[in-house]
Amino acid sequence: MMKKKKILIYKRKYKHNYGDLVLADCCRYLLYQAADICKSPIRVSVANVYEKSDFLIRLWLKNKDAVVYPGGGLNSAVFNKMLLHIFTFIEQREQIAVYFNAVGISRIKPKKKNIVLLKELFNKPQVRQVTTRGDLAQMKKYISVSQPYPPRLVFDAAVWAGEDTGSERTVRRR
């Protein structure tokens, strides 16, 4: 029997943005759909990127095989610094693979500070793939190391929101 892969989705939960919660739910739905198709047992948990407790961050990362950032814009230097803080704990656990799924990359001229942060995020050794729902050419400028899965332009995960609303009935949870 195959070992159950443990995946952590890092959602953005704060009081004025419900769209990122939808992205996390849809990402979870898609992971379970793919696992069913591939007959791969998984367990998906969800954590809040805005958690400030280092103890909780360590606890959430314990025994995880992968971390997925489910999308949303990466145009804020403040937010990207938070992701880098989380990476300090991911780097202590070499077995964790990181995936950035359908992230928003701005088509407007990004701030230099954010360019530096995105290059640092996307080129970490644990990053296996970065996909965008935005400007693929712009995103590729931030990636300088080879990744196992090439960068791609993909649909926003929220496209599956309609299917996800019935997912508890249609997707077998493991």
Layout: helices, strands, pairs:
Elements: E1 5-11, H1 19-38, E2 42-48, H2 54-61, E3 66-69, E4 72-73, H3 77-90, E5 97-104, H4 112-122, E6 127-132, H5 136-140, E7 152-153, H6 161-164, H7 167-170
Parallel strand pairs: 1-2, 1-3, 3-5, 4-5, 5-6, 6-7
Helix pairs in contact: 3-4
Question: If you had to describe this structure to a student in words, what would you say it looks like?
Answer:
The protein is of the alpha/beta class and 174 residues long. It has one domain: Rossmann fold. Helices cover 38% and strands 21% of the residues. The chain has seven helices and seven strands. Strands 1, 2, 3, 4, 5, 6 and 7 form a seven-stranded parallel β-sheet that branches. Helix 3 packs parallel to helix 4. The two termini are 14 Å apart.
Give a quick set of tags describing it.
single chain, 174 residues, alpha/beta, Rossmann fold, 7 helices, 7 strands, 38% helix, disordered C terminus
